[in-house]
Design brief:
The protein has 229 residues and is α+β, with helices and mostly antiparallel strands. It has two domains: 112 residues, Archaeosine Trna-guanine Transglycosylase, Chain: A, domain 4, CATH 2.30.130; 95 residues. Helix content is 36%, strand content 24%. The protein is built from six helices and six strands. A five-stranded mixed beta barrel has the order 1-3-4-5-6. A hairpin with a 5-residue loop joins β5 and β6. α2 runs parallel beside α6. 31% of the residues are buried.
Length: 229
């Protein structure tokens, strides 16, 4: 669907303080502000596309304006499902399609619209992609990460057909990365090899942390309680 986005048209830009959308990921949103209710109505009448952009630090004083600082790299998403509520509010599911850079914005509407250009993934060589793909799969199936991988459904990502490393990394990172700053840095990286390497380091760190916690619990439980004779 990425190739079907008409970048010659202005795309609504939805700036949020705590959401970073990745390609292939799905995020639930509740739209209640009047300007964004207008944005939703326009998007639903049109191509159902909305770009999610993370607000930068110190945005609060300008939040209700069109000048609140945002990150230039956003993710264009398509409305998968939408429910209009009383008062014109909306609940929706937005699925990420493609990274894009906001080149400039239009100020004719009450909400933000931008002229965007796609950021295409830069794939590694085929042998490197296979190595990175295998490394991610092995980590997800490692003893230290297996419990959380099963709970978070990470393993299912590798069973979604022939997804390229770029998509697998994005889907994993959306669940694995904890902060919006980490997610924004990941979103802004076009090089798939760098993205995968960053994700591998993050998963290794999580695994090490879980192993230390398990060792700590085992030490606290030893020696076992014994009776006094």
């Amino acid at each position: 669907m990425a190739g079907l986005i008409d970048y010659s048209q202005l795309i609504p830009v939805f700036p949020l303080p705590n959401v970073v959308l990745f390609p292939k990921a799905v995020v639930p949103l509740h739209v209640f502000e009047p300007r964004y209710r207008t944005m939703m109505a326009d998007a639903l009448r049109g191509n159902r596309l909305i770009a999610i952009s993370l607000l930068r630090d110190d945005f609060e004083s300008l939040y209700h304006t069109l000048e609140a600082p945002i990150h230039a790299v956003a993710c264009v998403g398509a409305v998968l499902k939408c429910e209009e509520l009383c008062g014109g509010r909306y609940n929706l599911l937005l699925r990420g399609i493609e990274r894009a850079e906001i080149l400039h914005e239009d100020a004719e509407k009450s909400y933000r619209r931008g002229r965007l250009k796609p950021i295409h993934p830069i794939p590694p060589a085929p042998n490197v992609e296979c190595q990175l793909f295998s490394a991610l799969r092995q980590l997800v199936n490692s003893p230290s990460l297996r419990p959380i991988a099963e709970t978070a459904n990470w393993k299912a990502i590798f069973d979604c057909g022939n997804l390229p490393l770029s998509d697998v990394s994005d889907l994993l990172a959306y669940s694995v990365l904890e902060t919006c700053c980490e997610k924004q840095r990941f979103l802004a990286e076009a090089c798939v090899r760098k993205r995968a390497c960053l994700l591998i380091k993050t998963l290794e760190a999580i695994g090490d942390r879980l192993e230390r916690k398990q060792e700590s619990r085992m030490r606290q439980g030893w020696p076992p309680p014994c009776c006094d004779n």
